[in-house]
Amino acid sequence: MSDCIFCKIVAGEIPSTKVYEDDEVLAFNDIHPFARVHCLIIPKMHVASLADCAPEHQALLGRMLLLAPRLAKEQGLDAGFKTLVNTGRGGGQEVFHLHIHVFGGGDPVRRT
Ligand code: 5GP
Ligand code: ZN
């Protein structure tokens, strides 16, 4: 997807602060963090949203979700963390490339 911000981050065309990378998944710090720690876990392949996932994405989704506690621990969120997946315009999604927000730390944070 040539006009997708997160595809451009995957391609290195837009800089990001990476916190994890493997052959299928990338994680980087959110540019507008709403907690002391706030990173985004994305698939390297373009999938627009959770609503666009199919059974073929099952392993990829599992890989992304299992990364959340690992990143949280690495970022020092020993007391716990939040995960968020906004889906669709009505779900508050702004970037239409699937991502899991992982955030926490500092004052208690809510985003509903
Ligand atoms: P959404 O509302 O789609 O769930 O969240 C999109 C997130 O992407 C927002 O928290 C926003 O701050 C973040 N974001 C948007 N553009 C960029 C960017 O160019 N770089 C980084 N690192 N984060 C971005
Ligand atoms: Zn994309």
Walk me through this protein's architecture:
By secondary structure, the chain is an alpha+beta fold. It has one domain (about 5-105): HIT-like (HIT family, subunit A, 2-Layer Sandwich). The protein contains two helices and five strands; from the N terminus they run αβββαββ. The chain has a five-stranded antiparallel β-sheet, covered by helices on one side. The structure holds guanosine-5'-monophosphate and zinc ion. Zinc ion binds next to helix 1. The site of guanosine-5'-monophosphate has 13 residues, from strand 2.
CATH class assignment: Alpha Beta
Total E-strand runs: 5
Give the termini distance in whole angstroms: 29 Å
Total of helices: 2
User: How many domains comprise the coordinates?
Assistant: 1
Structural class: alpha+beta
Strand content: 15-25%
Into which percent range does the helicity of residues fall? Answer: 10-25%
Major sheet strand order:
1-2-3-5-4
Features:
alpha+beta; binds guanosine-5'-monophosphate; 2 helices; 112 residues
Topology overview:
Layout: H1 5-11, E1 18-21, E2 25-29, E3 37-43, H2 58-74, E4 82-84, E5 100-104
The chain binds guanosine-5'-monophosphate and zinc ion (ZN).
Residues 5, 14, 16, 28-32, 86, 92-95 line the site of guanosine-5'-monophosphate.
